[in-house]
Every structure is written in structure tokens, then in C-alpha cells.
């Protein structure tokens, strides 16, 4: 204990104490049934007093009402503790989920696994499990009472309890590995299925369904085997504990009967001790019955604590910096992609001022997208820094910084929703004027209003209802939304026609005119005529940086005929 989850649970300390107190009351009240029985047998029946019987019955009825109330209250409090944990850990969990993908390079599904793990913990905390655990110490009270009735009754129940505890520990050992294995296979199974669903068209077109199904099935068989192993073990243990408890109840009854035959106890004691001993063993029995829930929650807890330790959320910055307005400087930058061992770009060094736009060029795998990701605050520098107005990006809270950054990834990545929601980055409610201004800046307004539902058109799952060019232009509008200071466009022209390219040119000029900075990754220099600076990368190194005309003149001189022609119209 001591990790984030324990801290979150610790915030409900007072509620946990109250649950403990309610458990104490419940366990004491639960004895009343046995006492009632003992009194009826040993006092009421010999004295034949109906009045006493009715009085006792009224008392026990009231006690049962309170028992029900306390039980309900305990259930509600545990549900509240689960909900509070959810509120307290929610933001941290979301940040950790982002971090494990962005910083540790885990597959995106790891985030969904973390959420599932947390659901399991919350479900356990809000369910009857913690109540069972809190009932455990009260077993001692029942033993004490049984021993007071007669030492042999205590001994018989104690032996039974030891055997049941042994079974519980055995269950723990036996279920630990299959529980872990089940979680691993379940996550892999879900990830494979979701990937196949995402790429169903390509898979279908190229006849890969059968092969992928076999691959999925292979993993699914492992999942099913782990599930079967777990349920066999749990079933066997559940059955053993049930049978053993029945045996034990009869054993205690037999001990009681022997004592009565020996004139060492009254008849009422037989029944009372039988009830008390079954109450004493009930918490252990319930623990065994719900073992799977506890084992799953515990392994989920361990995984999540490891996740929080490995990907701690960035410390919240308390001082809000003014919006950047003057410069972008990149100094001796090296980036190691998450999960990679070596830097894929190093020693990148340049500076741009408000009103500048730079084209980033280079052959495939030169590191252009890596630089774009670093500038968009996705991947952190392994060495060197990226600063806006002199302050490194690390000094910003990522959500606050995001407002000042426009990013169009190579794969565009629209989200399921309407055009307006996507352009407005899902701001709620969105600013219609800003959405329209961004769409106009990206030259896509006319195309949007020509659609039957205009800005409210549903774009389908991840933009599936749009053409490649439409997706790219709406992605550009999203990057321009809110006039961010730094606009990073990764191959924004790969799907554009001549009209789209002209709109892109105007958009870049627009960023420059309003005093922003644009960085445009492009393979064709001609496609981006409005950039006054050029950055050349090759094999992760900076080959050249400077005014576009100068860089291309140098390139033409070094390799005549190979250098691409710089488009005319480059305004400095
Ligand atoms: N997540 C990653 N883990 C490890 N290596 C990576 C990762 N992403 C990119 N790389 C490597 O970094 C190098 C540069 O990739 P990058 O995508 O930045 O190139 P690029 O210049 O944008 O290429 P292209 O023009 O083909 O898009 C490549 O060798 C690639 O294998």
C-alpha cells in the first residue's frame, strides 16, 4: 500500500471506519438469532410463558429491522467509497493512460486495460467483498462465545475454521497465476479484435480474414484455457467449502448432542451453538465464494499501482504562462520515440519568429514526423529543448498548451462526431464563429455548407463518411481553430487537389499574417509556396536550415537537376 490507489482509498478513511463500526454492530446483532433460540428452548418452553415468548419475539423483530438497516447502510457506504475513489483517481488515471502510450510506448489498448482494471477494483470496493473482510475479525467473538458454552464446541469450530482458512490460502495460490494469465489474454484478444475491426475493408479485400481469424483463435484458445482453469479451481474450492461447512455444522451439532447426553449442556445450546458456529465460519466461506472477485481486484490493483509508478502524471503547473506570441526555438533537440532505445533525430537546432513559416523536408524516415510530434508536445525531448517565447514546453500544462498549438497529423485522425465538433476540438459548447473562421481559414467552409447538414454533418466513425481530401481539410481547420500560435502540419497536402493546395497555401499565409508560426512537413517543395524558411533533415540529422531560397539554391548547386523546384510566390 502507499501508492495512488491506496491514497485515493485513504481519502475515504472516515467512511471506512464507519463501515467497520457498522460491521461490528451487524456481527453483534447477528448473535441475537441464536440467543433467541436458546431462550425459547431453555426458558420459554419449560416455563410455558406465552407472554415472555411474545416479548422476546417483538424484541428479535426489532433487532432484525436494525440488522437490515445497518446492512443496507454498509452497502450504500461502500458504494459511495467506490464512487469517491472513481472521482479522485479519474483524472490521474486518464493522465496515466495517456502517458503509458506517449511516454512508455505501450500499445493504445493499454489505456483500455487500465480502465478495465480500475472498474474491477471499484466494483469490488462497492460490492459485498470489503464487508466480508471486515466481518473476519469478528470470528474471534463467535469462538469466544462457543468456548463459553463449552470448550469442545469452540475446539470443533476452531478446527473447522483452520481447515477453511487453509482452503482459502490454497485458493489464493492456485488462482493467482490463472487470474493474471486471463487478464493478459483478455487484453490481447480485445486488442486483436479491435484492430481487425478497424481494418476490416483492407482485410476483406485481400482475403486475409481466414488467416487473421486463425491468429485470433490461437490467442482465444489460450484465453479460454485460462478461463476454464480458473473456473475449475474456483468451482472445486467452492464445492469443497460448501460440503465441508455442512459437515462441520453436523459435527458441531453432534458435539452439542454428546454434551446434552452427558448432561453437560441444555438442549437450547445444541441449536444455538450450531447457529453460532455457522455464523463464525460464514465470513471465511463468503470469502472463498467471492474469491475470484478479490483475486481479480487484487491483481488489477497491483497492475494499476505499477502503471501509476511507471507513468506518473506530470506535476500540475501552478503558474499560467502568457500566450506565446514571439518565437519558437529548438535547441540541440534529440528525440527517442517511446519504447525505442536510440534517438531517431538528434542535434536539431533552429529558431523561428512570429510571422515565419518553415517547410520541413527530407527523404522517407528522415525524422520529419518525429520532429512534428515533438513540436506538437507529443514526444518529450531526450536531450535539448523546444521553447515558445523562451519557456520550454515542459513548463506548460498540456491542456493549456494545446490551445496554442495546431497539429495536423499525417494520418489526420478525426474523431467520431460532427464536423463542427471536430473542428472545435470537442469544446462544449463550441464557439460557432471560431469554427467558421477556422473552416474559412482552411478553405473548407464552402464545401461544408454544401453538405445537407452543413457543420452538423455526422462524419461517421473516425471520419469514415468523408473523402481523404475532405478529412485532410477538416483536419486543417481543426489545427487552425482558435488561431493557435504554433501550427504544425504533417504532410497536409498528401490528399489535396489543386484547389485544396491553393487553400493550404492561403492558410499558411494566414498564420503568418496574424503573427503565428507554421511548420509544414512536405515531400514536394512546390506544394508549399508560402514558407520563408526551410529545414532539411536526413537520417535524423539536420542537413540545412535557413531562408527557403538560399537553402534550395544551395541544394540546386550541390546536386543540379535533383533539387526540387521551389515554388514561386514565397513572400518573406
Ligand atoms: N514509435 C517509434 N518507435 C521507434 N522508432 C520509430 C518510431 N516512430 C518512428 N520511428 C523511426 O524513426 C525514423 C523516422 O521516422 P519518421 O516517421 O519521423 O520519418 P519521416 O521523415 O516522417 O518519414 P516519411 O516521410 O516516410 O513519413 C524511422 O526510422 C522510424 O522507423
From TrEMBL:
Pfam families registered for this protein in UniProt: ABC_membrane, ABC_tran
Bilayer topology annotation: Multi-pass membrane protein
InterPro entries for this protein: AAA+_ATPase (IPR003593), ABC1_TM_dom (IPR011527), ABC1_TM_sf (IPR036640), ABC_transporter-like_ATP-bd (IPR003439), ABC_transporter-like_CS (IPR017871), ATPase_T1SS_PrtD-like (IPR010128), P-loop_NTPase (IPR027417), Type_1_exporter (IPR039421)
GO molecular function, one term: ATP binding
Gene Ontology BP annotations: protein secretion by the type I secretion system
Span of domain ABC transporter: 328-564
Entry protein name: ATP-binding cassette subfamily C protein
